[in-house]
C-alpha cells in the first residue's frame, strides 16, 4: 500500500453498560447514521432476551456476549491463485476480524428473520446463537467445515 495504515479510533463506551463492544455492535447495526435508533433497537433486543431467559443466572448482556463468542469463527478460507488454479487456503483470523465477522453475521441473519420488529429479530438470533443454533452459528460451522475440507492446501500460506 502507498499510504500508511489508518489509525484505530478509540470508541466511547455505551451509556447503559459502559462497554466498548456494545458500541462497536451498535455501530455495525446503525443505518444511515441513526445511532440513537440503533441503540434503541439493541437495548430493546436485550430487554426481550432478559424477559425470555427464564430463571437463568446470566444477564442479557452476558447472553449476548456468549452468542457473539459462539458465532466467532477461528479460521477462514482465502482464495489464492497458484499455477493457473485457484485454491481455497485455510487461514487463522485476527482477533478484531473475528469479532467484526461475528457481529456482521448476527446482524445479517437477524435482518433475514421473520419477526415484527428488528429488536425482536435480533433478540431471537441472539438467543439462538447463545444456544449454539440459528443461522449465524450455522454460518460459522460452514466456514469451519470449508477450512477443514481444504486443509490439504494449508501449505500454500501467503
UniProtKB/TrEMBL annotation:
GO terms for biological process: translation. SUPFAM superfamilies: Ribosomal protein S7. Keywords: Ribonucleoprotein, Ribosomal protein, RNA-binding, rRNA-binding, tRNA-binding. It comes from the Bacteria. Residues 1-151 form the Small ribosomal subunit protein uS7 domain. It holds the Pfam family Ribosomal_S7. CDD domains: uS7_Bacteria. GO terms for cellular component: small ribosomal subunit. One of its GO terms (molecular function) is tRNA binding. Part of the 30S ribosomal subunit. Contacts proteins S9 and S11. Belongs to the universal ribosomal protein uS7 family. One of the primary rRNA binding proteins, it binds directly to 16S rRNA where it nucleates assembly of the head domain of the 30S subunit. Is located at the subunit interface close to the decoding center, probably blocks exit of the E-site tRNA. This is Small ribosomal subunit protein uS7.
Amino acid at each position: 500500500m502507498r499510504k500508511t495504515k489508518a489509525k484505530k479510533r478509540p470508541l466511547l463506551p455505551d451509556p447503559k453498560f459502559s462497554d466498548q463492544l456494545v458500541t462497536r455492535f451498535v455501530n455495525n447495526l446503525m443505518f444511515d447514521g441513526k445511532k440513537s435508533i440503533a441503540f434503541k433497537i439493541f437495548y430493546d433486543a436485550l430487554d426481550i432476551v432478559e424477559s425470555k431467559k427464564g430463571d437463568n443466572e446470566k444477564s442479557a448482556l452476558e447472553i449476548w456476549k456468549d452468542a457473539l463468542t459462539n458465532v466467532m469463527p477461528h479460521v477462514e478460507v482465502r482464495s489464492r491463485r497458484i499455477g493457473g488454479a485457484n485454491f481455497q487456503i485455510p487461514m487463522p483470523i485476527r482477533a478484531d476480524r473475528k469479532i467484526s465477522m461475528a457481529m456482521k453475521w448476527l446482524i445479517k441473519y437477524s435482518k433475514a428473520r421473520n419477526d415484527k420488529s428488528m429488536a425482536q429479530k435480533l433478540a431471537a438470533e441472539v438467543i439462538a446463537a447463545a444456544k449454539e443454533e440459528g443461522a449465524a452459528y450455522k454460518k460459522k460451522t460452514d466456514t469451519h467445515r470449508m477450512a477443514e475440507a481444504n486443509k490439504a492446501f494449508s501449505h500454500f500460506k501467503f
